[in-house]
Fold this sequence. Notes:
Blueprint: E1 2-3, H1 11-30, E2 37-41, H2 51-62, E3 69-73, E4 91-92, H3 123-147, E5 162-169, H4 182-202, H5 204-225, E6 229-236
Parallel strand pairs: 1-2, 1-4, 2-3
Antiparallel strand pairs: 5-6
The chain binds S-adenosylmethionine.
Organism: Hibiscus sabdariffa (roselle)
Protein name: Jasmonate O-methyltransferase
Pfam families: Methyltransf_7
Amino acid sequence: MADLGCSSGPNIFLIISQVIDSIHGICQQAQFKVPEIRVFLNDFNAIFQSVPGFFERLNKAKGKMVEPCSIVGVPGSFYGRLFPTRSLHFIHSFNCLHWLSKVPPGLKDTNKGNICITKSSPGSVIKAYAKQFETGFSAFLSSRFQEAGTNAWRPNAAPVPGMEISEVDWVPRDKDDAEFQSGHYLSNIVPAASEQMISRRFGDAVTDSLFIKYATNVEEHLRHQNNGKLLNFLVSLTRK
Ligand SMILES: C[S@@+](CC[C@H](N)C(=O)[O-])C[C@H]1O[C@@H](n2cnc3c(N)ncnc32)[C@H](O)[C@@H]1O
C-alpha cells in the first residue's frame, strides 16, 4: 500500500493499523495466511523518526501475529509517477490534494502582488487556480490509475467507490470555552503540516513571526465568523 502526503503523522499510523486489522480479520475468517505488508511513503522527511515507536506499539498489540510490515520511502511528488505499473493494492492520501503542484501561471500581473486568492482578486485569478487544480488532480489520478493493480485486494474497511462531502469545524466544538483561544489552537496545528515547507523556502527566521501573525488573523476572523468551516471531500475509487 502507499500513503501519499503523510507529513509527520500520526494519521498515517492510524490508517496502517486499520488496514492491518482488516487484513487480519479477513485472513482469520477465511483461514488465509496473513500476507506481508509493505507501506510506501513519498513525503517522509518528518515521519521516519516516529516509525520505530509505531513498530513497537504494533508488536505489543499484535504480538506474533504480525507478518513483516516494512515502511519504505519513495521520493517524489504525487503529481507524477512514483511506483511501477500495477504494483499497488491500496493507495491512500488524506488532506493533501488541495496543495497545488505550482502557483498558476500568469498571476503576476493580475493578482496585485498576492500569492493566493484574496477579496480583491479578479475572476480570472479564481479560474486560474481552478484550472491548476484540475491539471494537478488529473495528473494525480492518471498516475495512480497506472500504479494500481486490477486484482487489488480491497480491505473490507475501505469505503465503497463514491464520494462523500462533510463539513468540519475549524476548531473542535468541545474546545469552545472562554479560556480557549482558537487562533492559538490553529496556529499550533497548522505549522505541524506546513512549517517545514515554509522554512525550507523562506528560512527558519520567518516561521515563528509568521505563525504568530497567522494566529492573530485567525482569532480576528473567528471573532466575526464565530467558527470557520472546512469542506472535506472523501473520494474512493477502484480500478476496473
Ligand atoms: C496537511 S498535510 C497532510 C498530512 C497527513 N496526510 C495527515 O492527514 O495528517 C499535507 C502534506 O502533503 C504534502 N504534499 C503537498 N504536495 C505534495 C506533493 N506534490 N507530493 C507529495 N507530498 C505533497 C506536504 O508535504 C504535507 O506534508
